[in-house]
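[09:14] KT: can someone run the structure on this one? pasting the chain below
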Amino acid sequence: MSETFADLIACEDALMFVNAAITSTGQREFRHDEGEQRLSLDFLHRYMLANYRELYAASLALRINDHNAALIVRNLLAHASDVGVERRRHEGRLIARRLELLPQQRVYRLFRDLRGLGVNNRRTRAILRDWLAGRRDPAFDAVKYRSALKSAVRHAHLPLDGELGPFLFAPRGVKSFRTPIFEQWRRAHYEQAALYELPYTVAEGFAAKHEIPRKVFLERIEPRMTRLERLRLQESARKANVDGVATDLGAMPLTRLASYVLSLPLEDRAARRAELTAALRAAARRVAGAARGSWGKVTAVLDDSYSATGSGQKRRRPLAVALASSYLLEALAATYTPLWTSGRTDELLLYPYGPTPLGERILDALDTAPERLVIISDGWDNAPPGLAADVLRIWRTRLDPAHRVMIAHLNPVYDADDFDVRRLAPTVPTAGIRDAEDLFTLIELARFAEGRLGLEALRAHLDDRTARFLEVTT
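[09:31] RB: done, structure tokens below
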């Protein structure tokens, strides 16, 4: 096998893994169950670790999802016996930076997994120690993630200062803590008023223990809720006739906000049309930033077919990504045309329905003479099957070989059978997408999937992303 061919295979393998690491969380999808997803994803991780360790580690600098970031960190720490000192040092910096960005509960779960695997080398202990030392409020962590922190401390044999040790390992032997949140936790065991000074997730357990009515608990704990907790609890608070639990929807992350909107009954969406539309547009404008209106004439083909239902674990996730992306593209474009596969035009009242006539919609989209055509779909073109591939092939090879129209396909669903996201046509770049907020960088990454840019260009791109990723720690 020639070096050129080997480089091509390496580039394709790296892109395949990145697509999987962006889209798959090992959970059930519309067409694949959880076991298939996990088995397929586990194979990819093992393959990349064994054959392209440098590229595997560099993917930590990309916008992969938290599930795969944690898996990469776990694998790099668990399999490092044959890695040189400089490479391990570089990996350590990537790992430390990525752990700063992961949700703390995910990091604690990672530490628990490492303990279960018996991974307790010096590098692992140092990374764990430095991450814990960098926590802004160790006492808060000790209360909210008490069992997880205990496990991590035991595993790394870390010394503890002040009252942290007694609180974690022998709280019943302490009559009174000087640390306020520790004392509130102690008092909450027998005093209801104290639980309202604790984090919501901790207070909820105490509320159940004291048999506090849900309405009373939500009203009094409301000031302690985070923004995401408020969003998650808005509907249950309404059912309990609690008016105080509310959040600024326009300040929510765009894709999460789209998921919330789609979770509402159609009559609620219609009644709150002005509020919800304004919030989605505000979130989209925030993501677009300085690029607002700079993309020229944009047309999007968006998949709201029945497969956009997702699964019980990822309910309506593909549709939420498409809806959020539509609002973002509207903010980026000077002129914007959204074309949904169902033919519907009222985006706020969307729900998964019908087949996937991608080919017909792509023809409609090209008729609008766009400068950019963005397709967001799981790629299962079935009405009629294969039309989208034929349309895109003819367009690229005969009608627009000079690539005057930028076309990109973003796929929110991992295909466990193919170890990749499903592609529409070899002539159109495809990239996986999990959040609409990543649309900018994913369209850039999709260029490599066309085959016109090789491994050297991909390495340069990853080196640049890695340097920017690590610059805050240097």
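[09:33] KT: thanks! The first helix runs from residue 3 to 23.
[09:34] RB: yep, looked fine to me
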